[in-house]
Design brief:
flat; 8 helices; 65% helix
Length: 215
Amino acid sequence: MSRVRSNEITWETFSEGLWKENPVFVMLLGMCPVLAVTNSALNALAMGLATAFVLLASSTLVSLLSQYIPKQVRIATYIVIIATFVTIVDYVIQAISLDLYNSLGAFIQLIVVNCMILGRAEAYASKHRPLKSIVNALGMSAGFTIALLCLGVVREILGAGSLFGFQLFSDNFQPWVVMVLPAGGFLVLGAWLLLFDWYNQRQQERLLKENEHAN
């Protein structure tokens, strides 16, 4: 299997996952956990950290072993590697907190089929050296976790009047129950996507104007 030998690490290696190729707001990957477990900030953070561990560990191992994996079975091998780390996360969360484990439900196991993780293994980790793959995986993990928190924080504040379980308002606050329901996930995700797209358009317009003035 051909492999890019360049090991040059730049800010772009890390930052592309935060903004330019954000897994949620740009690439729309991993929508099941994004919509299902972000009814609270704690659930969002836990899922983000669990996914980050799997992405970092699998990217590192794929990068180390890619030259030795036959091309015909590379996808199956990547899935086995990812499933191994997902099993570790599953048992760790279960041991730490049964309540959190029950809140996340089957979505912990579904990390195995998260397109972001398999996609990074195939498109990036298998073609770059370990250190560069780790830095890129860190950026992607941070982007995914931040996106989950963006939804979880908004939904918990509006839907329960709390943040990470701490009450923010008085007893007179009327929570928007829809925000902790599946419909609330779609509403908040749509709002964040609109905001993200609006900001990107503003940035592009600004760059166009700067280029026009420069010419």
